[in-house]
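Objective 1b: paired records.
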Amino acid sequence: MRPVRDRRREAAALYEYPEHLRSEIDTLPRAPGVYTFHGPQGDVLPLYIGTSVDIRGRVMDHFRTPEEAMLLRQARRISHVRTAGDIGAQLLETQMIKAQSPLYNRRLRSTTRQFSLQLHRGKVTVVKSAEIDPARALVVYGLYSSSRSAMSALRRIADDQRLCYTLIGIERGVAGRPCFRAMLKQCAGACHGAETLGDHEERLRAALEDRQVSAWPWRGPVALEERGADMRQYHVVLDWQYLGSADNLTAARRIRGTTGQFDRDAYRILQVPILGGMHKIVQLAA
């Protein structure tokens, strides 16, 4: 199979402005939301789903990109959904991509695997989301798509902070004896007494702190209010999972849903808006 880069070059060489889509631009607003390129199969299998605070401007960027010639040739129409702002657009985009699996989207695909780091008595272990709920766990760090990526992150932290691979559980060693990295001056020496175990664990906790997954701060669902220039939405969230949006609180209270596997994409989008105090948060009946 030819490399993706070669196929992209060939597509770019065949680029022609998508005249058949020119009329579609007229229907697109200069406003936040989600847009979808539909191919011959229509709504059954979308080609691409994207988001922008300026839908029309972003779609026009696609038209100017020769590397997307294949997508543009296959597209038959472009639909869109307005949102009040960027938060709602991002949430809707992730929801639509996971539900519809568009052909050209590579990120935000639904995943059944989720891993985090957990610290206990100075040692770090990789845990699966099926074994622990990151929405409620207070000592879980990071959200990773594989055990390998979680361990790679831990190694980077250990390297940056001169932590001992043996003590944190990356490698095996003999108690009281210098590890290999200590002999290379890459470990501060907690493995052989040059640093106290307490100081070592404190440095480890400090290094992990900014990766800590925040526990869900309410007992039930909440509505995050987002206001735009001409639109207002209430995004309903429970256990860091997005359940849906409504244009008023009465409709928001009718939104129901059950939480399942922790959604790291929703968490990434929502953590700062919900905890940052910049948006109105309304508690809904559980």
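Objective 1b, second protein:
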Amino acid sequence: MSTPTPHNGAKLGDIAKTVLMPGDPLRAKFIADNFLEDVTCINTVRNMLGYTGTYNGKKVTVMGGGMGMPSIGIYSYELYHFYDVDNIIRIGSAGGITDDIKVRDIVIGMGASTNSNFAAQYQLPGTFAPIADFDLLRRAVNAAEQNDIKVVVGNILSSDTFYDDNKDANSLWKKMNVLAVEMEAAALYMNAARAGKKALCILTISDHVFTGESLSAEDRQISFKDMMKIALEAVE
């Protein structure tokens, strides 16, 4: 039986209605190994590992999405349109921007500002505001509260550039109270909106853009586990 796309080796029915999508495929493997039961590897194409299993009896898939909006744009589009996925929750790392955001904080992107031209494809007569699905956001916040995990909800930046030639860029976003910077959420939110599906981005602050503070490998693993637990608890 052939697969629906050249980028995903999963067959129809292999992927759950909800997909957790870290950027790093090895993080997907970590979640599958440590959180899921009855796990099956459903994709190895391009080493973008994907696994389907159960969490508290609920079927869930975890699959890498890569770095940047072109990468998550392809994978999320195909999941929504060709694999009948309803919900994608991105779980990743981010750099803190505002003064009140610290390393180890967990940020949920209610909105995703961007310097990307991703929305140009829709030929809209104005500026589109990429936002999370409220139901997913509410479930994630409730899961955090029930597990006594602090989260901060607000606007994030999805940047096309990791190394930006404009050295003032982050300072300008900081003036607008943008909490943190990452590289994928805006494309995910736009794909979800266009497909009539749901998306959410949950981030762990691994470093701070202005203070230079960063997590150790051990601290990062602990904090990322909290983020993973929130995402899994948010799955219906």
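The chain has one domain: 18-233. The first helix runs from residue 25 to 35.
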